[in-house]
Every structure is written in structure tokens, then in C-alpha cells.
Design goal:
433 residues; mainly alpha; 3-stranded antiparallel β-sheet; two-stranded parallel sheet; 18 helices; disordered N terminus; Cytochrome b5-related protein; membrane; iron; heme binding; metal-binding
Amino acid sequence: MVIEDWKNCCISKKFPSYRNSRVITAFGWLVSKREDDEAEGLWRIRDTLYDFTNFIDKHPGGSFWLKETKGTDITELFEAHHLSNMPASLIESYKVRDAINERIYTLTMHENGFYKTLKRRVRDKLPTIDVKRKSNSDNIHLALLLSTFLTVVFTARWNSLLLLVLAGTLLCWTVIAAHNYFHRRDNWRMYTFNLAMLNVCGWRISHAMSHHMYPNSYWDLELSMFEPFLCWIPNEHVKTLTLRYISFLIEPLVYAMTFLLDILTRIFYSIRCTNIMYWHDLLTFTIPLSMYLCSDLTLFMCLRQWLFIIMVASFAFCVIGLNAAHHDPKIYHEGDAIRDDRDWGLFQVDTIIDRVDLKSSQFLVLTHFGDHCLHHLFPTLDHGILPELYPIFYETLDEFKAQLREYNHFQHILGQHRQLLRVKSNLKPPGLM
């Protein structure tokens, strides 16, 4: 969706150029970011440039983040993905020079600000936390994965519509649980994301690099990719009355087709432009293969049932994900008034309302994007240990006069639809509403 670049971006000095593209993709966002970030072909952290080429050569198996982010500003990524002080000292040997121009992003991470204060307290707390809850997350994910394949096989053998829906739901939960792992170093669990036609590399860009760092801003790719069908940015120049209400009618179709459109877009661009398909994209075919090998169904019937399962999973994923935390008239969206304190952590708090109805169950948290605010602040930490951090989190919020807001899922669904209708910007920042 094209929006004229007279529209200012509240968290950066530049309007992101990818927003002027006809078709918005994860890899197009990354190319645009390299053009916009003024990192001079290197890696930028704050106003210093680094060259991590030698590090990548020595660590070829775990350097996805560095390979993909060359030529960009990785300040927020670096801070959010490293709790220890060690990486900050190690990168000194890779320093090249100071950047010519100032950072284009206006978000801050001052040592005495909200995020760095909370980060120090969390770092001190982690050694005292029982790590068994991490094992519980692993067990839940494995159980979901096995249950998905068992249900898929039973679906093919008994040709049951009810089992088809159950298989799609379990696949959705497996994918969401895999999200717990793809903010970290490469690991086998994150590749189960590909079972639903999604690509873990593309979603690392659109979700981890874009959405997690700059939620609800023009830099948030997950906000842009659904436009013009679903437009959450309050813009009366773009969101006509017709478009607002049409979005309600086509919303179910968009939900059901999201996974299919993702892979079709990548196939198209791999053929026409550059190859953005990977070996792990083949993992999605393990589901129809299991159906074919374990039943008497024809290949055509297996493929037809598989596509139905994918559409159920896609629909369930969007119902959960798009109503999980980020869209409500009380949440900051691009164009709304923003806090004077541009602390990155406070910006995260202002763009999120947590799901209060999930906190009593680790299973629900893992399969429904629970503990969302803490996850945004510390994405590499396992969901299982996040509940242990709430006392510190609340203490720091009180100190900086901020508040974690919480709704149940029904309230989130209502809020998300009210946001689709909203065209007027909020004149007060979330902390003062």
C-alpha cells in the first residue's frame, strides 16, 4: 500500500522507503532498511560502525542475524538480544569508526532509562530462576508436534472433517510454540514454523527484526503486509468509510489465506527476482507425505486435505495473533501522540496490551502469544521463565510512572476491530490517556 512520504514517522527522521513499494515483502523491507539506515555498508550500533565479517567467517552456523543485517542499524536488535555485558565488550575489537551521520531512529536506551534499568535487574534475577520451566516449554512443543502428525494421519485414514479442523488447530499451536525459539540461535525447533508453509528466515525479518523492534510504526512490516485489506494505522486520507467496513467482510478470507499467500509470494519472487526459498521450505510437504504414506487416499485427496488443514491453521493463527496484544484504540499506533521519553522499552509498553486470561497456564502462554510485553522486551528468554520476572517488571514500571495494561481475548477482539475503524489520531500518548 503506497502512502505518500509527507507522512512523518514518529520514531525515525526518515519515512521508510519500503512503504512506497507496490508489493511489500520481508526481504524488500530489509533491502529498504539498508538504504535508509546510513550504516555505510557495515553494521551500526548507535553512532558507531562495526565490521563483523571475520566473526561470521569463524561462526558460519550461528550468524544468521549478522549476515542478514549487514548495512543496517542493529542497535535495538543488539540490546534486546543480549542480556549479558559480554557482547558489548567483545564487539570493541570489530569497531571500524564513528558513523558520519546521526542515527535516524529517535528511540533511546539511556543507561538510567527504563529499559536499561529493567535489563540490569533482569540480568541479576536470572541466576536465581528455576530453569525447569524451560524444559516444560520444550515438552509442550514436542507434544504439539507429535500430536499434529498423529492427527494428520488419523484424518487421512478416517476422512473426518472434525479431525481436519483439529489437525489445523494443532498445527497452528505448534507454529506459535515454535515462535518461542526463533528469536535465538539456529535450533531445530524453530524450523517447525515451516510446517505451515511459513518461512522461518522471512519471519525472522518481518517479526523479530521489524515488528519486535518497531511495533505499530511505519517500520513495522507486520502492520504493512496486511494493507490495504486490514489497515490499523489511523489515517483518514487512506481509510475511507468503504474500506473500513469492507475490511470486516473480507477479514475471514484474509485470515484463511495468509499462510498460502506467504508461500505464493515467495515462489513468485524466487522465479521473477531473487531466490528467497530455502531447503527448510520443503518441511511443509512432510504433512501431505505422512497422509499419503499412512492411508489409502490418492495423492490428489491428500493435497486437498492438506490445503484445508493449512487454511484452518492460518485462520486460527490470525484469530490468535492479530488479537493478541497490539491493536486497540488505547494502544499507540503510527500518527498518535508519543511520550516525550523516547525510551525503547516504554515504547514497547505503549504498543501492547497483554492477555490477562492466559497467565495461569504455561500451555496457553506458549500457544497464544502470552506474556507479550515481557517477550517483546526480552525475546530470547523462554516463555516459561517470564512469569518470574513480573515483580521486577512492575517495580520498574512504577518507578518510571508507566503501566502494563491487560485485557481478555474478547476485549482484544473488540479493540482490534475498533482500531480498524479508527481514523483520528490520539492527541495524548498512552501513558496519559
